[in-house]
Each structure stands twice: as structure tokens, then as C-alpha cells.
Design a protein that fits this description.
alpha+beta, 8 helices
């Protein structure tokens, strides 16, 4: 699928509203982007941006839309390790690495616009602003910890533990016993790195045990609500 070139001017406000570019003015960015090489492209939903093993040539900033970091195992299961949205960075921890290959696949979750910053421009930004460099180092450290923790957590937890974590989070967000599912069960299974049938089997077990009830669009907390309350009191 072909990518489309997009004009940077309409997205300067997005950049200025991020911590990374807090030390710059609009004029500063216009001047820097005028003399340095960069790319800005529009990706369709479902389009693969980078495949696992591809060389990282830029640090990317999401100007609009969402992307997911995905891992595909030997059986073809898709694990969504993380989802990033407008203002987030991708590839910051790889670009200056000696082993700068994408360890996982990057996919556009919806129509997405990405700014590709190349090394020369990043170095120029760092020389122009100490706050930019300090924030960039913080982003690199935090992203590395996020991905490491997510992989570690998913590799240790059972399907039921992951389901309970998901339901507990949604319960506190939605403040209701009847939780509206904002993603499909297929996507939920992908995020957990399990088969769709394995997730359905676990949900059926939990329903038979009186913990939950569910349909295509909602999950209703039954006995699980009491268990979550006890867990939170500890």
C-alpha cells in the first residue's frame, strides 16, 4: 500500500504541545525543518509500518492516529505488546543503537500520520535545546522499561490473571458492574498473546463459576466483583 506525503506545517501545534518540543517556538521548528531532512507520511489502518528485523532509520513521532507494537509467535498468534497514540515516539531507543533492528512489527491501528526524524535533525534539535535532549533520554528510558515490563508480565501471567487484570482496570474506569467492551474479544486475545478460542474457553469457565456473565458487547461482573474488592483491600 502506498504512503502519502503530508505537509509538516499543519502539525507544528501537535509538536509544540509535547514535552519533547516544549523548549522550541514555532519559528524555531520551521527553521530547523527547513534545513534538515525529514519525512512525514500518512498510513492507512492495518498497514504495516515496519516489519520485525527491519533496520531503524528514523525516530518517529505520531502526529495523528495510533500504532501498535506486535509480536507474532511460531503458531501465528499476534501479541500486542503496546499501543501508542498522538504525541508518542517510536524507534527512539533503536536509532542510535548498534543493533538498530526492529525487534517487533509496527502496525497502524487506524489512519495514522507519522513524522520521521533522521539522525542529523535529531542532533540539531539536541544542540538547539538541552530540554529536548533531556526529555528524549527520559522517553528512551521509559519506553524501554515499558516494553520490557509488558513482555515480562505477559509471559508469567495465566489467561485468567490477565482477564482479571483487564476487568479490574475497566471496572475502575467505567465505575459499573456492566463493562462495555471497547475492543473485540479477538483484539483482547491478541493483546494477551493467546488464541481467540483459549480466551473464549476461559471466559466460559468464569461464567460457569458464577464470576462473570457476558455477551458480544459487554461483560457483567458477578462473583468476580467481590474477589476484586477483597484484593483491593489488602
Amino acid at each position: 500500500m502506498e504512503v502519502m506525503e503530508v505537509n509538516i506545517a499543519q502539525y507544528l501545534d501537535v509538536l509544540l504541545n509535547t514535552d519533547l518540543f516544549a523548549g522550541f517556538t514555532r519559528e524555531d521548528l520551521q527553521r530547523l525543518f527547513a534545513v534538515h531532512n525529514f519525512g512525514i507520511r500518512d498510513y492507512a489502518g492495518g498497514q504495516v509500518i515496519y516489519v520485525q528485523g527491519e533496520l531503524c532509520r528514523s525516530m518517529d513521532i505520531i502526529l495523528a492516529g495510533r500504532v501498535s507494537v506486535q509480536r507474532i509467535d511460531e503458531e501465528g498468534n499476534i501479541l500486542k505488546v503496546a499501543v501508542f497514540a498522538t504525541g508518542d515516539l517510536v524507534g527512539a531507543n533503536l536509532l542510535f543503537s548498534q543493533s538498530n533492528l526492529y525487534p517487533m512489527t509496527i502496525v497502524a491501528e487506524e489512519k495514522t500520520v507519522i513524522l520521521h526524524l533522521y539522525k542529523e535533525l535529531i542532533l540539531g534539535l539536541g544542540q538547539s535545546s538541552k530540554s529536548f535532549m533531556a526529555e528524549l533520554l527520559a522517553v528512551v528510558a521509559n519506553k524501554t522499561l515499558l516494553l520490557t515490563d509488558k513482555i515480562h508480565a505477559l509471559s508469567l501471567k495465566t489467561i485468567r490473571q490477565q482477564v482479571c487484570d483487564f476487568l479490574q482496570y475497566e471496572y475502575h474506569v467505567q465505575k459499573s458492574d456492566v463493562l462495555e467492551l471497547k475492543i473485540s474479544k479477538k483484539e483482547l486475545a491478541q493483546r494477551m498473546g493467546v488464541h481467540r478460542t483459549s480466551l473464549s474457553r476461559e471466559l466460559n469457565k468464569m461464567r460457569r463459576e458464577g464470576l462473570i456473565d457476558y455477551d458480544a458487547r459487554t461483560i457483567t461482573l458477578r462473583g468476580l466483583k467481590e474477589k476484586m474488592g477483597k484484593r483491593g483491600d489488602k
